[in-house]
Amino acid sequence: MEESVSIVIPVYEEEESVPHLYKSIKGVMEGLNRKYEIVFVDDGSKDKTFKLLEDIQKKDPGVVVVSFRRNFGQTAAMAAGFEYANGDIIVTMDADLQNDPNDIPKLLEKIKDCDVVSGWRKKRHDRFLSRRLPSMIANGLISKVTGVSLHDYGCTLKAYRKEVIKNVRLYGEMHRFIPAIASWVGATITEVETTHHPRKFGKSKYGISRTIRVVLDLITVKFLQSFSTRPIHAFGPGGLVLGFVGFLIALYLSFEKLVMGKDIGGRPLLFLGVLLIILGVQLVIMGLLGEMLARVYHESQGKPIYTVKRVLGR
Ligand code: UDP
Ligand code: MG
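Above: the input record for the complex with uridine-5'-diphosphate. Below: its predicted structure, written as tokens.
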């Protein structure tokens, strides 16, 4: 028996797309002859999305619907989807018909030899200036900083082995970094070209402001990767060096004052010395605070990033 598949789909106000999406996924998956389920996560939609999903779920026991109390964002929706998914392989995709379910078999084929398969929208149908250009820059930056080189971090159409995804804790706009986070813990990643369609119904939930949030999240991810276990190593060395230089300056000025009897009150060097000592002490203290936070962070379960109103089919 081949491994079972869960298709996880974050949905926010996509009432026109949902019926088409469901039908087209069904068409593809029924032809594959393997166990599968579809997990829709309704991210607090105010349109008819939930009603439509509820109707689908009533007729099809292979569908799970998780409904959020309010809009928590795509990352939270995906985290909930991972939580409720039972499959050995988890495939994520957008609900707006921009990803093509016909690519799913390709992803499932590829994941036989690796842990994560990432879609690459080579011919992407989005606006150039507001979406594709920022995305190109972001992909370059993320690849460089995380050391995991991918053309299209932003493509939701990806496949993961269950073991990889269950250990990744998501927040912020973090879902796009899953391949990088997974690779740090030893997962292997393959990229496949996928089809991308222009958005037919509804409108995109994002604008250019997302790029900025993604860059900030990238800094967090990088920091967590490098120093989350030893923050004192990030801040300590700088603090010690600056503090030591400040100490030498203070020592020299004390010598001038006490031994040579010179007036040091108006010397710029005095200010520099004081500044460096304070900075140095603060950096070391920051490192120690970081150490305490890191312990709290690693020991606590962390509060969930969403609240569920109800779950159908599980
Ligand atoms: N989405 C969501 N919660 C949100 C925003 C978006 O679940 O707060 C879903 C949305 O319904 C879609 C996917 O995330 O299925 C991607 O959103 P969108 O198509 O607007 O992004 P784009 O393709 O323009 O990057
Ligand atoms: Mg889209």
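Notes for the reader.
DSSP finds ten helices and eight strands in the chain.
The longest strand covers residues 5-11.
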